Inverse folding.
């Protein structure tokens, strides 16, 4: 199944589940949905920053400061975070610390995000259809990048300002 045909959990403007729709329909009509944001850091405090493939439906080729993505229909936010972390980076069986939830909206996207932290110092297995490559950067370096997915920039800024991560 292509990503555009995946079924996504749709929520109302108060983040209450109210149905499901294909990803393409959600994107076309900018429906409210849920998404996970998993910030992966290593023991040195560097973040795993991904470069998105050019085939992504929004923000192709941009830097993604977090692993994650839309929550599938009927899936919990935490289960979606675990699934996305494994799909994108090959990471499993890691403790996910839920930091906070936030609301994000722009001209292309309306979502409620759940933000998680996890530490990983081992190898990665990149999902070729979504991730071109990764680099390990300090949060400050990550925030200074151009061409970043705007929702992950907001989430990372909140993580730093709330003291979950040191900026340096």
């Amino acid at each position: 199944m292509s990503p555009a045909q995946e079924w996504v959990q749709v929520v109302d403007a108060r983040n209450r589940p109210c149905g499901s729709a294909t990803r393409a329909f959600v994107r076309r009509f900018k429906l409210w949905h849920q998404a996970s944001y998993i910030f992966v850091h290593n023991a040195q405090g560097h973040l795993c920053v991904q470069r998105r493939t050019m085939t992504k439906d929004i923000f192709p080729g941009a830097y993604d400061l977090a692993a994650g993505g839309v929550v599938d229909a009927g899936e919990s936010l935490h289960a979606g975070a675990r699934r996305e972390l494994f799909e994108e980076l090959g990471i499993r069986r890691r403790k996910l610390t839920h930091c906070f939830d936030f609301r994000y909206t722009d001209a292309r996207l309306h979502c409620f995000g759940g933000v998680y932290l996890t530490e990983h110092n081992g190898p990665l297995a990149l999902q070729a259809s979504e991730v071109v490559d990764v680099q390990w950067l300090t949060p400050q370096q990550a925030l200074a990048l151009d061409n970043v997915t705007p929702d992950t920039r907001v989430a990372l800024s909140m993580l730093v300002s709330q003291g979950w991560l040191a900026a340096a």
